[in-house]
Amino acid sequence: MIPLFLDLSESRVLVFGAGEVGVRKARHFTSAARMTIVAEEISPEIFSFSNASIKQLAISDMEPEDLEKLIGRHDIVIAALSDEKENKRLCAIAKAAGKLYNNATGEGNIRIPSVVSGAEYQIAVTTEKAAPVVPAFIRTYLQAHLPWLDNMILLQNTLREELKTIVPDQARRAEILRAVIDDAEIQNACVSGVPSTEICKKYL
Prior knowledge:
alpha/beta
């Protein structure tokens, strides 16, 4: 599989299931896409998803043609029921319709990764179900060892724009930016706040 970050602001996501797994998967799309959530039992958290349309009904009672129409109106299908057989049925319909789909209890053509993030960055992590504790480890590691990362990103952005006006050679600009991110003094300054670009002048 190929990791990508996608703009889903114009896409429609269909989530079957509103239990613990369904809620977690739906949460991944709350800031990007319009969602339809279909489930017999609805978790209260679902009602906090402002971009979600909720349909409370049993998927097993839906006619095949109704499911096909519903799936056909969406771009991404998430099968997050506790019933593995039902998930496979939903994903088979989605696959036949040429949709992107994720099966919580089996194989799909997309993965929903764990996301490790700060104010200025996002890191998507998947281990193909082999080691689910790894994303939490990465998050803890970043917090412990790279507490300066968010402010370093802000500094790098400011410095990069300044360098464009005074250093014409792109390779030299890249060299300076790498030296700045490796500089322990600048890292320490970033821990408490974004340092002035003055602190970076020694590299110019």
